Amino acid sequence: MKYSNPIIRGFNPDPSICFDGTFYYLVTSSFEFYPGLPIYRSKDLVNWDHIGNVLENQQSVDIHNVKNSQGLFAPTIRYYQGTFYVVCTNITQGNFITKTNDPSQKWSEPVFIDCPNGIDPSLTFYENKCYMHLTTSSKNRDYSSIILFEINPTNGKVLSSFKTISNGCGGKDVEAPHIYFAHNYFYLVLAENGTREGHMVTIQRSKNIGGPYTSCPSNPILTNRNKRGILQNVGHADFFQDVNKNWWCVALASRQIHHLTLLGRETILLPVNWNGIWPLVNNSSYATIDVETNLISSKQLLPELLLQNQFTEKNIRTLGLSTNFSIKNKSLTLQNHNVSIQTPITEPISFVSVSQAEFNVIFTTTLDLTKLSNGDFGMIIYKDDHHFLKTYISKNEKLCSANINGLSLDIEITKPSVKITKTELIEFKLCGTQDQYILSINDITSGKKNTLTKVTIATNHFTSELANYSFTGVQLGLFSKSKIGETNFDKVELIYNKF
Question: How far is CA 20 from the centre of its chain?
Fold first, then answer.
């Protein structure tokens, strides 16, 4: 059977996975976007459902005032004796732990852990004890360290001293520590060399969980840094066993075009074989888009699903705070707020979006101008506060106009406003390919389409490499900026083709 990577497409980095005997559950980072930490579920490893989010209404984790590519970093999910646990870092608050008996339902109020500042926390359950490990760094040294300590996973209380167990295998930015017990050894899996093209997975082993750890002689065990192909930036792996005790790993990767990343860091799946006492990933130490294996028998439904409308309530992401909205029969009702789309967020904004998951995309909606209050209402491509492009209707007591405005670092993108007089119904339309976006505002009052304003822009303006905000991907969304009322966008549809 052949399946294709990524298994979870679009902005879904830093994957972590567990298995409860029936379902596989996977969590990814969400950074400044809300709700926090999406949870996916699968029974066959290649078809995944987004069943909820770890952080939806919890008050203790505050991402109101975070900037781009800050917020919620690199969660880990683990299942132990009927309970699911997630540990994660909020970059402005510290590390926390939360739990549930059902990942599709509400998670407990997170508890912050009194431990050294660090990122990428993970848990290992062994002989009725729970060990936490994470990456720490210091201003007084130019390298990262992995520390280990025992905690009570129920209340987050630290039960031991903090011990440094690894400084990595020679690469910079030692991160993403996960520990597994197999073949009578503890295996410490790491990510090194940053999350761009030098990214790699390394591994060490020890007879004791607290070390000392010895590096694999054939490190790295997974990287595409010297491999041509679309999949790049491969790293941040989490290992697990399936229902038949076969080993696998999930990792992050980017689909690059001309060394540029548009869609963000995504989640891939690769089989793992054990070469003696060291693991061999994908029989090659390289990540591939197509994977041939007899370990999966299910048909991968991803192509068919991507042809369906993706602008649905479960896919919606907002910035920093929850936004009041509803979607029914492709109609979006969005509560108006008079706040701009920019971080840090101090109060709710009227902006809802989905993460772009394929290059070839068509995104459309209609808007009845006779029902608008005064304000700005439109469609936006959003990478970060310094890389965005929006088409919108601006209305006040004297004038209604169609507008285009954007920013690419320090270059402002504008076109002259187009005055609107007799138009009552307009269409916003976005057509994207791997090379360019075309955005337009069209008058469809008479049933025929008349373009009021239009812009074409290269996609490289929104890539992680040019934006230098490498943790998140492109968001495609709708917004309103008005003091009162609500805005109704009709016939909202986002679909992919020719992927």
Answer: 23
Provide the pLDDT for residue 140: 57
pLDDT at residue number 142: 60
Radius of gyration of the chain measured on its C-alpha atoms: 23
Residue 14 designated active-site: yes
Catalytic residue among 14, 32, 192, 427: 14
Kindly tell me the sign of the dihedral angle through the C-alpha atoms of 145, 150, 153, 158: negative
Question: Does an H or E element contain 254, and which?
Answer: strand 247-257
- Residue tagged active-site, from 32, 175, 192, 376: 175
Q: Are 420 and 401 contacting, i.e. CB atoms less than 8 angstroms apart?
A: yes
Give the residue ranges of the chain where pLDDT is below 50: none
pLDDT at position 276 is 80
What is the per-residue pLDDT for 345?
78
Token representation of residue 85: 């646990």
How is residue 286 written in tokens? 């390289």
CA 445 distance to own-chain centroid: 38
Count CB-CB contacts under 10 A for residue 212. Answer: 10
Q: Which two tokens stand for residue 120?
A: 């990428």
User: In terms of pTM, does the model score above 0.90?
Assistant: yes
Which residues, other chains included, contact 66 with Cβ-Cβ below 8 Å and sequence gap of 6+?
31, 32, 91, 92, 320, 343, 344, 345
Question: 3-class DSSP state for residue 102?
Answer: coil
Asked if 414 and 431 count as a contact pair (C-beta separation under 8 A), the reply is: no
